[in-house]
Amino acid sequence: MKKPIFLMFLSLFFLFLFSTQGNAAANTSKIFLNGEELSLPHDVQVTIVNKNVMIPIRVVAENLEFDVDWNQQARQVKIQQNDKVISLNVDQKQATVADKQVTLNTAPQILNKTLVVPIRFVSEQMGLSVKWNNQEKIVYLTDTSKGTDGAPGDDSGDSDTISLTHVTDIIFADNQLVVSMDGKKVLPVITTLKNPDRLVVDLPGTVFGDMTQPLDQGLNGKLDVSGYPNVTEVRYSLFKRDPGQVRIVVELNNVKDVQFEQNVIADKLLIDLNVSGDNVTPVPVTPVLDTGRKVVVIDPGHGGSDPGTISITGKPEKDYVLAIALKVQALLLNEPDIELVMTRDTDIYPTRSERVQLANQLNADVFVSIHGNSVTSSPQASGTETYYYQRTGSKDLANIIHQRLVKALGFKDRGVKNGSLQVIRETTMSAVLLEIGFLSNAAEEKAMSSEEVQTKAAQAIVDGIKEYLGI
CA-to-CA distance for 111 and 100, rounded, in angstroms? Predict the structure, then answer.
C-alpha cells in the first residue's frame, strides 16, 4: 500500500487512539534532515519516553521517500526502501529488519496520534547518522547514503557508523569522571599534558548518543566542576568524525598533584582522581565490640578543604549533607540494635580511601554516603537518584532507601543506578550513595536548606536502613 492510501487509513485509525503514557513533549522541538528543518504537523513533537528520545517515524519515512504500509489489525507498520524492509509493532520492543530480529530500547508507541520510535533505532537500522541536542531539543538526521555534510553535529562516514559505540552520559562527581556508553567495550587512551595542565581522555570508535548533558551544534559541551579545587574545567567534544572519537579534557591546577586510576566496568568508564595532599584529616577508627548489634556507617560527603559542588545560592554541598547526616545520627543513636559510626560529624575532610578503610575495618553491615547533586548548565534538572555497585545486597539497600526518599521528599524519581564510585565500589558491605536533590535547582536547594525537608530525608534514610536490616 502506498503512502497516500496508508496515510488515509492511518489518520482514521488514529482518531480512535489517545496517549495514556503521560509523557511530556518539548514544545520547541525540531528535526533537521540533511541540514534542512522538517515541517512537522502541529501535534507532532520530539518526545521523551522512559529517558529515550522518540521521534515520529511517519515524518522521517515520508521525507526519505520510503514506502509505508500500516496493518491495523496487527498494529504493525512496515517501512520499505528498495529491498530493505523494517517491521515495527506498537508496544513491542522486538522488531524485524531485513528478516532479522532486533530489540529496541523502548517499544514503539502511538502518542498524539503519531507512531514514535527511539532515535537510536533510526540511527542503527535506517542508515541515518543521528544527533540529539538535549538543550535545544533538536534532532539532527543525516542520510549517510547521500554523502551530505549534514547539519551541525552530524557524523560523516558510511556504514561503519553503525558499529560505533555511543557515549550517553558524562558526569564528574567526587573527583571521579564517569562515562556511560552503549555498544562494544572501548579501551580509552589517557594522556597527561602541560601548558595548561590537563588530562586528555580519548575514546576511539565512539560518537555521542542520546546525551543527558547538553551539546552545542558543534558537538561540544562542558561540565560543572565548581567546588573541586584542583580541577578547573571538564569539557568534551567529538574530536574525530571518521572514524568517531569522543575526547574529554580535564583541566587541572597542577597535574603533578593528581594521581588517577581507570576502570572499565560493563558499560562505564571510571577515572578516579585522587588529589594528593594537604588539609586531609585522618578518620579515627573507633573499635566496635562484637555486641551483636548491626554496624552502620554514615558518610556525609566532602568536608573540610573539599566543599563539594556549590549551590545556586553559593553555599557548599558539604554543609547540606552534614546537616542531613547529623539528623540521621540523632535518630540512629536511639536505635538499640544499631551501632552507629560517622565518617565525619564536623567540617573535616577524610579522603574517600579513608572512608572506605574505616567501614571495612569495622566490618560494617551498611554504608550510606549522603550527597547533593548539581548541573549548573541545566538549572531545571531535578530529582533524587541513588547509586550502588554490583553487589545484590547493595542493590536491595539502594531500592529500599530510594523508594522511601522519593516518597518522603516528593522530588522527581531519577531512579536507582549501578555506579562505579569509590566509596561504594571498594567497601565490602552493602553500600549506597544518595544524591538527595539538585543544589543547582532553586526549588530543591530551598527545600534541602529547610529543617523540615532535612528531617524528612533523615527519617527516610533511617527507616530504609532499618527495613533492610530487618529491625
Answer: 27
